[in-house]
Specification:
Order of helices and strands: HEEHEHEHEHEHEHEHHEHHEH
CATH architecture of the largest domain: 3-Layer(aba) Sandwich
CATH class of the largest domain: Alpha Beta
Shape: globular
Structural class: alpha/beta
Oligomer: single chain
Largest sheet: 6 strands, mixed
Distance between the termini: 52 Å
Number of helices: 12
Number of domains: 2
Number of strands: 10
Strand content: 15-25%
Strand order of the largest sheet: 1-2-10-7-8-9
């Protein structure tokens, strides 16, 4: 099993930079998780680094996961398995098989893509895992989006980097916004915040109020909140009852726009604006949609004069899919 130097050495903190565009009556900063130097970056690479350790420890010979054709997670897991010299098997819903850049990259990395109806995903995964075991193989399965304690732990580390930045610069964030999908990112940020604040209180340090807001890209609010809460409980373990409060979990589905992968012209315009003013690529499935949702949330809640951090969770290949779609639309209209 080959080693990945970046994952062996540990991921260095990603930069936090102030944004120059006029996005509202606040100071906006962005944490560039998309600049993690592996497979186009993103927090899925940060999560993969945690799963990498477990895959090595259990001496797996095939890595399995689940995700759609647009999944950043599947791209990075396929790339990681390829770099480790391991086989990769991805279960994917057959309902939408548009060939996107992430799909093409997964194929380039040599992963097997098995499609099935979305209603048959769970049984297909179970059947395939068992089939590999019957063949004498040792499969390691990762839930979609890097869900689970390793993924949550990775995003706890993200929060620690944010806290370190605040301490080093004296800039304290009043709000942290991000795209919330499978819920692991939000679970990690919330868990990191709760643990950090508990440590400060025990050391008689001042705790400044901060809100973490998950902008749902697909799930409805009731389901989304519960998934995040369960992940927080699983990660915190015995500390959960003492530390967790319902008000710590802010999850909104107000900007889902019809579900996963759906977006409006306003989202596209926001992506174009951020690229033009700040040179930062965003996609319409995750980050751009969440950034637009953040702007709407801030406006609707009349938030002014605050330091706001947006966590860019990655997805560069999907930005180019959006460009391709725009060019195709122009060709059809010509």
């Amino acid at each position: 099993m080959k080693q990945i130097a970046l994952f062996e050495q540990g991921i260095h903190p990603t930069p936090i930079v102030e944004m120059s565009g006029d996005y509202g009556k606040n100071r906006y900063y962005i944490k560039r998780e998309d600049m993690i130097p592996f497979s186009f970056g993103g927090n899925k690479a940060r999560k993969a680094a945690e799963f990498y350790k477990e895959i090595k420890d259990c001496e797996a010979d095939i890595v399995m996961t689940y995700g759609s054709n647009s999944s950043n997670h599947c791209r990075i897991i396929a790339n990681m398995a390829c770099a480790m010299g391991l086989a990769c098997h991805i279960i994917s819903p057959e309902e939408n098989r548009e060939m996107l850049y992430n799909t093409r990259l997964v194929e380039e990395f040599g992963a097997v893509i098995e499609t099935c109806p979305v209603t048959k995903v769970s049984e297909t995964i179970d059947r395939r895992v068992e089939a590999y075991r019957q063949e004498g193989k040792n499969p390691y399965f990762i839930l979609g989006g890097g869900h689970g304690n390793p993924g949550t732990r990775a995003c706890v580390n993200t929060y620690r980097e944010i806290a370190d930045y605040e301490e080093q610069t004296g800039i304290c964030f009043d709000y942290i916004f991000h795209a919330s999908g499978t819920g692991t990112t939000q679970a990690g940020l919330v868990s990191g915040k709760l643990l950090m604040e508990d440590r400060k209180r025990k050391n008689a340090q001042t705790v400044k109020e901060k809100k973490i807001v998950g902008i749902s890209i697909a799930r409805n609010e009731e389901r989304g909140r519960e998934v995040v809460r369960q992940s927080v409980e699983e990660y915190l373990g015995e500390k959960y009852q003492a530390l967790y409060k319902e008000e710590e979990l802010i999850f909104t589905d107000a900007y889902c726009m019809g579900g996963y992968g759906k977006y409006t012209q306003e989202v596209k315009q926001t992506i174009e604006e951020v690229m033009a003013k700040d040179g930062i690529p965003m996609d319409s499935t995750y980050v751009g949609k969440a950034f637009y949702g953040m702007k709407r949330y801030v406006e609707e809640h009349q938030i002014c004069g605050k330091n706001i951090l947006f966590v860019h969770t990655g997805g560069a290949p999907l930005y180019f899919d959006l460009l391709d779609k725009g060019q195709e639309t122009e060709r059809r209209q010509a």
